Structures are given as structure tokens and as C-alpha cells.
UniProtKB/TrEMBL annotation:
The lineage of its organism: Bacteria, Pseudomonadati, Pseudomonadota, Alphaproteobacteria, Rhodobacterales. This is ATPase, P-type (Transporting), HAD superfamily, subfamily IC. The keyword Transmembrane applies. It comes from Loktanella fryxellensis. It comes from the Bacteria. Pfam families: Hydrolase.
Length: 222
């Protein structure tokens, strides 16, 4: 599979993905062939961690590596290559996503969260004020650990579902803590709603913006 084919297949699989990650893939891939009118979009959900498109009998999927690998019995050598590649991406604080076309595992794409300039210093300032920062993410433990080290948060929770994010917020509140939550994804909406301060990122999903009690119009929490 050549890079151009992988890129366009990932774009097709992201057409029904309204998350910031899905939209960024579509933009990065550029203009490609439009999906047939009869195609059925498979929307990304925090539960499946997969998005895609069905074009007739052709099923294209893109998503978290482990979620994709559970879909079919892919070629063992391709699986080994994907696992090695995604571990390398995760250790570099990137988010690896696998792409499959039917029973063919095509490859992986890497997304990189850009740590905002000055955020590490801001977290240090919050720490001096007695405010603890925790990153709760759906990313893999390797990716989460790398981003946590780069950004300077006090703690992190990886591979977190919306329910686990919500439970974390409620547990802190039950302990008498005032909790501020910042998020941009659909899976951030459940914990944004009950937080004492729920800050939605303006470039995030509509669900997040509706759940928060304020919106960061500059999309720059630093």
C-alpha cells in the first residue's frame, strides 16, 4: 500500500468522524474522490473508538489500533508491523491510528498533540497555588505518559472512557474538591457538564461546547 492510497483511505474513513482528530485527517489528506451517494458513514464513538465508511460490500475503518485489530483476523505479519510502528509513535507522544480496508490492514497514521507554548510553566504556577492538574485521555498509556512528561501535569489517566472521565470528576467532588474540567471532544461532554467549571475548547466538538459552562474562544487554555 503506497502512502497516497493509505492517506486517501484514511480520509474516506474519517468523513463521518466529527472529532478534532477526524477533521484534521480530512484536512491533511486534502481533496479526494467524493464518497458515493449510497455510501453509509460509520460515526466515531468513544465506545467503539472507530469510524469508517461502507461502500457497497467494501468496509473501510480507521481508529485506535487495538479497536481495529479486534475487528478481523488480520495477517499476523501486518499486525506485528503495526504494533511495532504504533509503539514507536506512542513513545514519541503521538497518537497512532490504524487503517483497514476489509480484511487488509493497510497501515497506520500518526497524529501529534501539540503542547501549547507556556503550558508547562502554567501548570507549575497552578501547582504553587495548590491546584493539582490531571490529564484524562483516551490515548494509550505510552502516549499519555509521554504527553504528561512533556506538558508537566501532576498525574494522568490513559485509555479513559467517557464514563471513567465522569467518575473521576465525581470522585474528586465527593472528596470536597472544586473541579475545573477542560475538554474538546464528544467524550469530554459527560465530565464537562457536572464540573464546577467546565471549559470547552472552541475548535472542539459541538457536544463539548454545549456541555461546558464556558467556551475558550481562542482555543488556547495556556
Amino acid at each position: 500500500m503506497i502512502e497516497g492510497d493509505l492517506t486517501d483511505t484514511a480520509r474516506l474513513a474519517s468523513l463521518g468522524d466529527e472529532t478534532p482528530e477526524g477533521r484534521s485527517i480530512v484536512v491533511l489528506a486534502g481533496i479526494g474522490a467524493a464518497a458515493p451517494a449510497t455510501a453509509a458513514m460509520v460515526a466515531f464513538t468513544a465506545q467503539t473508538r472507530v469510524s469508517g465508511i461502507d461502500i457497497g460490500d467494501r468496509q473501510i475503518r480507521k481508529g485506535a489500533v487495538e479497536a481495529i485489530l479486534k475487528l478481523r483476523d488480520f495477517d499476523a505479519d501486518a499486525v506485528r508491523q503495526i504494533r511495532a510502528l504504533t509503539e514507536k509513535v506512542a513513545r514519541a507522544s503521538g497518537t497512532p491510528l490504524a487503517v483497514a480496508d476489509g480484511d487488509r490492514l493497510l497501515g497506520a497514521i500518526a497524529l501529534k498533540d501539540i503542547v501549547k507554548a507556556g503550558i508547562k510553566e502554567r501548570f507549575a504556577e497552578l501547582r504553587r497555588m495548590g491546584i493539582r492538574t490531571v490529564m484524562i485521555t483516551g490515548d494509550t498509556p505510552l502516549t499519555a505518559a509521554a504527553i504528561a512528561a512533556e506538558s508537566g501535569v501532576d498525574d494522568s489517566l490513559a485509555v479513559a472512557t467517557p464514563e471513567e472521565k465522569l467518575a473521576s470528576i465525581r470522585a474528586e467532588q465527593a472528596g470536597g474538591k472544586l473541579v475545573a474540567m477542560c475538554g474538546d471532544g464528544t467524550n469530554d461532554a459527560p465530565p464537562l457538564a457536572p464540573a464546577h467549571v467546565g471549559v470547552a475548547i472552541n475548535t472542539g466538538t459541538q457536544a463539548a461546547r454545549e456541555a461546558g459552562n464556558m467556551v475558550d474562544l481562542d482555543s488556547n487554555p495556556a
